[in-house]
């Protein structure tokens, strides 16, 4: 017990220092990127969790404890947003996702108000918060894991499994322990397991921390390639890549993957990944495929001979599996809907 009381603040203090360092690096190098700002929020929430357990939930420190505890339960929600933005190279998050996170964040605030004004603890809110934490954590881990094959950033692809284990696993473990500790009063075994989890998560994050200095880990806003154009001075492999995609239209094939593409080219997969990322500027394979698909769709929408062809038919023919992903990709690339783009192009040609 005595050794636990000594180790607890030491381990938490070291972890807090590490996550504050991560926050400082992200702010210094990537503060203009949405995914980095969400990562900062996630790390601040982790720091709040580490600090809250050092405070006593009674007496003068009760309100600070409740505020830090309320912020700490947002870690899974920020983790979910972060992996969506970072691993999928999204430049924005839809309003429904922000609304879901905001609604979840209201729950612990309502709990604080109930405790302050009525002196009652809502078990129903506590259960909803724990269910939400589990759901966000599992969803984030799944997103991080499912897209690993399409990730063209080598350092980031290698960091996926580590991040899933370190942050996602830590969130699940702590949430599970807190479900059985009388609303925050963790037993000695529970605190010991939590300390081991903090040590492991801190070690994994510290190993990968230096990678966040690399500019390639975060896409700068507005710099994602929109069109599938060959490099100015393409290598033979890049020329073959462009020929297979632009001329043979391999991107139309259902289930087309980087493994299939590498087999068609007769090249090792890692060389194909490096060519697509290093020479053609794409950060994930889906964006690479979509750039060729969108090139074909732009031409079709601007073609007066195809003005009566449904947009969905054009999208499906180009390789998109459904209307939703196509609409999102098109709006991200052009800043307008496909219908508006078609109307504008046909009007410019004197047909509309």
Tell me what the structure shows.
This protein is an all-alpha fold and 352 residues long. It folds into two domains: 2-216; 236-348, Homeodomain-like (Arc Repressor Mutant, subunit A, Orthogonal Bundle), CATH 1.10.10.60. The protein contains 15 helices and no strands. It has helices at residues 2-30, 34-52, 62-72, 75-87, 95-117, 123-146, 154-178, 188-209, 236-247, 258-265, 269-279, 285-301, 311-317, 323-334, 338-348. The longest helix has 29 residues, at 2-30. The N and C termini lie far apart (79 Å).
| Averaged pLDDT | 83
Alpha carbon gyration radius? 24 Å
Q: What is the helix tally?
A: 15
**N-to-C terminal Cα separation, in Å?**
79 Å
Instruction: Please summarize the sheet with the most strands.
Output: none
Q: Unreliable stretches, pLDDT < 50, 5 or more residues?
A: none
Order of helices and strands: HHHHHHHHHHHHHHH
> Which class best fits the helix and strand makeup?
mainly alpha
| Beta-strand residue percentage | under 5%
Shape: elongated
Number of strands: 0
């Amino acid at each position: 017990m005595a050794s636990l009381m000594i180790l607890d603040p030491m381990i938490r203090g070291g972890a807090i220092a590490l996550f504050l360092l991560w926050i400082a690096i992200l702010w210094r190098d990537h503060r203009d990127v949405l995914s980095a700002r969400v990562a900062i929020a996630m790390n601040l929430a982790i720091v709040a969790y580490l600090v809250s357990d050092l405070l006593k939930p009674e007496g003068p420190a009760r309100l600070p404890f409740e505020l830090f505890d309320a912020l700490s339960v947002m870690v899974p929600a920020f983790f979910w947003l972060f992996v969506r933005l970072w691993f999928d190279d999204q430049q924005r998050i839809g309003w429904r996702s922000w609304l879901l996170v905001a609604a979840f964040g209201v729950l612990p605030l309502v709990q604080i108000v109930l405790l302050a004004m009525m002196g009652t603890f809502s078990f129903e809110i506590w259960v909803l918060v724990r269910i939400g934490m589990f759901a966000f954590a599992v969803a984030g881990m799944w997103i991080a894991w499912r897209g690993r094959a399409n990730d063209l950033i080598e350092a980031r692809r290698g960091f996926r499994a580590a991040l899933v284990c370190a942050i996602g696993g830590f969130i699940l473990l702590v949430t599970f322990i807190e479900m059985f500790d009388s609303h925050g009063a963790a037993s000695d075994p529970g605190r010991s397991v939590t300390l081991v989890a903090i040590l492991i998560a801190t070690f994994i994050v510290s190993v990968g921390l230096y990678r966040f200095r690399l500019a390639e880990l975060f896409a700068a806003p507005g710099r994602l390639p929109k069109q599938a154009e060959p490099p100015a001075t393409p290598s033979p492999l890049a020329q073959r890549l462009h020929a297979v995609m632009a001329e043979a239209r391999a991107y139309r094939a259902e289930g087309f993957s980087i493994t299939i593409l590498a087999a068609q080219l007769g090249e090792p997969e890692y060389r194909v990944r490096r060519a697509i990322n290093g020479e053609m500027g794409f950060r994930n394979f889906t964006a690479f495929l979509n750039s060729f698909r969108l090139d074909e769709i732009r031409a079709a929408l601007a073609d007066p001979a195809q003005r009566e062809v449904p947009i969905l038919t054009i999208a499906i023919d180009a390789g998109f599996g459904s209307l939703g992903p196509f609409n999102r990709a098109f709006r991200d690339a052009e800043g307008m809907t496909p219908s508006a783009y078609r109307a504008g192009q046909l009007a410019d040609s004197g047909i509309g």
